[in-house]
Structure prediction request, 1092 residues.
Amino acid sequence: MARPAKKILNDPKNVVAEMIEGLVLANDGRVAKLPKHNALVRTDLPDSKVALLIGGGSGHEPLFHGFVGRNLGDGAACGQVFAAPSPDTIVEAAKAVHRGKGVLFLYGNYAGDNMNFDMAAEMLEEDEGITVRTVRVTDDVAAAPPERTHDRRGIAGDVYMIKITGGAASELDTLDEVERVARKAVANLRSMAVAVAAGSIPETGKLTFELADDEIEIGMGAHGEAGVYRQKLASADSVADQMMEQILADLPFRRGDEIALMINNLGATTMMEMLIVNRRIRQICDREGISVHRTDVGTWVTTQEMAGFSITLLKLDDELKHYLDLPAESVGYSRM
Amino acid sequence: MARPAKKILNDPKNVVAEMIEGLVLANDGRVAKLPKHNALVRTDLPDSKVALLIGGGSGHEPLFHGFVGRNLGDGAACGQVFAAPSPDTIVEAAKAVHRGKGVLFLYGNYAGDNMNFDMAAEMLEEDEGITVRTVRVTDDVAAAPPERTHDRRGIAGDVYMIKITGGAASELDTLDEVERVARKAVANLRSMAVAVAAGSIPETGKLTFELADDEIEIGMGAHGEAGVYRQKLASADSVADQMMEQILADLPFRRGDEIALMINNLGATTMMEMLIVNRRIRQICDREGISVHRTDVGTWVTTQEMAGFSITLLKLDDELKHYLDLPAESVGYSRM
Amino acid sequence: MSETLDTAGATAMLRAVAQAVIDQTDVLTDADLAIGDGDHGVGMRRGFEATLEALQSPPDTVEAAFKAAGTAIMSQTGGAAGAIFGTFFRSGAKAFAGRDAVDGASFAAFLETGLEAVLKRGGVTEGQKTIIDALAPAARAARAAAGGSLADVTAAAAQGALDGVEATRAMIATTGKARSLGERSIGHPDPGAISVSLILVAARDFVAAA
Amino acid sequence: MSETLDTAGATAMLRAVAQAVIDQTDVLTDADLAIGDGDHGVGMRRGFEATLEALQSPPDTVEAAFKAAGTAIMSQTGGAAGAIFGTFFRSGAKAFAGRDAVDGASFAAFLETGLEAVLKRGGVTEGQKTIIDALAPAARAARAAAGGSLADVTAAAAQGALDGVEATRAMIATTGKARSLGERSIGHPDPGAISVSLILVAARDFVAAA
Ligand SMILES: Nc1ncnc2c1ncn2[C@@H]1O[C@H](COP(=O)(O)OP(=O)(O)O)[C@@H](O)[C@H]1O
Ligand SMILES: Nc1ncnc2c1ncn2[C@@H]1O[C@H](COP(=O)(O)OP(=O)(O)O)[C@@H](O)[C@H]1O
Ligand SMILES: [Mg+2]
Ligand SMILES: [Mg+2]
Ligand SMILES: [Mg+2]
Ligand SMILES: [Mg+2]
Prediction:
């Protein structure tokens, strides 16, 4: 933890506020910041819709602030780096996105997020009479055994969850229905990450863990939380084999399943590495008789400058496929 | 140059071939690889169009292979990491994209690319009777003084060039016209990069330059070529100020100009840093009376795991704006 | 050494507590780097800097002073600690309702009330290597000393928290970001528990010096 | 020591040259890391490994042998070096047209013909810190020795290239990836020039041992 991080920043205490200012400016007026909170809201929200509020700690750019847009999040409540947003920020963001049909909270399953979003939900229901439902993303198979999925962390699966739930919240008429789709998606979603090098929090300037020059950690969490095991640096094919074995066995994914596949950069990994891993994953899918409906390879859920990647598989049915394939556009994620 | 690079790869000699295989698999059938060459071609090419062939050394992912798609490149000829593709690869790629109206070669201005693409152009004209025109991207203001723009390197400006020329090659009927639009764009395009840490070539495993823990290099090239000067790590605002001063003075950009603005990740930099820089750039543009038509913040032209970013400004007119704003979709770049 | 603290005294104590935590930012950072994500120090600093600011305008009552601290922490700390310490101070404040001074008994009640709210909010029990493992023994020790002076009670609470921190070293985390470390979390004290001890030691020292 | 090389001999010499360059991959890498992008070594290795493979099927003529080497380099090396060395061998090969052996005079003509093509392709002149700065003095030295044996000519060419490499140290690069270094390129030899010297030294040594 001695090696200092090297970043081009202004005052490290202001990173989140300045980042959000930069994001709003990059967004051509399609999102606005709430005056007193690190929260973003779409400027083109229809008058009546089920609202989708996403959020969590910052430092995972472009998640979450970059996922506010059409068929994605209606708003985002952003905390400081790696720290859940506070209840007041969540409450104000929820009030700003609410369009009369209730608000779905969608976020990663972490103690801090759970408590802060729960407090906000209680305040909204009690003080504002706004109905809130909550779906927590729990895609990280490395975080807990299958019988305790409620103890699992949310990692790159957030992207598919926001994509599908955002689509459902655009087209479906009731909070119940949107929640149902989101719950189905999260039940079909599995991810796992591998870390090659650590990231750092701007305010401390310290790397969040240590890893020897020839070591990697399989199952690393999105804030540098411990994974399943450390091992020597290995070939792309063998790393993909190990990760896919655990992911496939977990749901389990079976012959004949159709999936969406995401390979997500944790920050500093080259796209070349991810594409080489994609090659191996497809060999495995072919062998297992699993068909890939679509693939996303890119940088969406990061841990600052951590190096490594995650693999996400989402088992599809026609409904999930429909919402996943709707066009979407935001600073962080666009697809026609 | 002692610190070894740490990557998850198979045999480093096969990285380009495996990467292209992974890319084609990620692309849902919209691009195909030529059987014997590291070259990609759109599978949905219309029967008659001016063809746009892009290409260059690999290692800058998602450029170039990730920019083959509708309103982008019709094909890409890919070299080994940091090495221009060979004439035979370029020739085969050009033959594969040719649709009776000639081929425009669009690539970054480097000795290796110039020679290999020129040889290919000669072969195509002599042996195949295919008309070829060439536009070289020369956006890097750090590479040579304004009176020698023909000595300048092509860096992140490649993205806007491919976007605009790809659009023009979809809509315009003659090679002449497409070339005219591309030449206008390149004349209006200026970029500059800053490096924070070095990247490495997989086959050597060695970092391409050394930079002290508290140093940055302004003007670094896309293969780690020397920049304008080294200096101590400084605040985001002051780095943005320095870079913008040189970029603005170079064209020069003037009060009343309308621009497209791109902040491009060289590889390992956090989006947070780029958004904080965007905030400052917009303050500068406001002060100078320059309006920003659109902003792109992301990872498109990398130097493997190099840390740092580049700033690109493109002065727009109605024609350039039209082609720039056409929808486009590819593995590397999508925008509705 | 005064036996009770009026509103101004309680406010001064909260300011001393805030400064003590802010001064130990790096200690908390390193503790959280070891088993969590490394943000506990800067989070606590944000929350307690906001507390210092909030207490610039003198609160009307002891309850208001503690509630202002909790509100500042809840809105500025973020993360698990923001929710927990925010809830702790805001809910604990109710123990001072209608009272114009902090004495030993009300301080013990404050800890108990806060603990109860925090247990409910966080859904954990003792032994999971959290804030609770410092707070619960502190509250018990304070209750046992509650017949004595405020100095006795704060001293007992501080000692309970310090013992609790030590005990967390041997625990395996089963919640929060440290959970996935499993046995690898053994040997490290819990960062949130350390924060509890910093708060209660600062309170003890303030009362002893007052 | 034979006075001329027939097709089999020329092929064997090209194989020896290829192996010599492949063996020095790291030297070329480090030279290119110092003033370029660090890929020159692996590029030359790729090109000359392809050359070895191409020469597995014995060429019919000397010209074909040199052309096969050039074609392999041009298609597998990539970058500036692929274009330059590919052009050099492919165009230089024409100096052997209609001849069934390499002698001193034809080797000198090979260097001159190759140089001319490379000058045209690259558009640079002597003094810009490139391949040319080893190749041009090598060709001149070979011409001066062209009345002598093949051994004399290859020895003179090798020495000319080695001297050329030394001279590149003092030059400021004005083309290629090293250009932007400006004065910072002084002191480092040019990687492409080193490759020329490796090729000609290996040719000399092969002829001397043949
Ligand atoms: N459910 C919980 N109940 C009580 N305390 C908790 C709970 N979860 C985590 N904690 C405490 O929070 C501390 C971490 O705080 P902090 O680093 O600020 O939050 P985060 O885990 O969100 O990064 C842990 O050391 C632990 O003491
Ligand atoms: N225009 C040119 N003419 C001749 N040689 C050149 C030219 N440009 C570059 N070179 C040579 O190419 C060498 C670099 O080769 P290499 O590293 O393989 O290519 P790249 O510069 O594309 O990475 C330089 O050391 C220089 O000798
Ligand atoms: Mg945290
Ligand atoms: Mg190169
Ligand atoms: Mg923490
Ligand atoms: Mg090179």
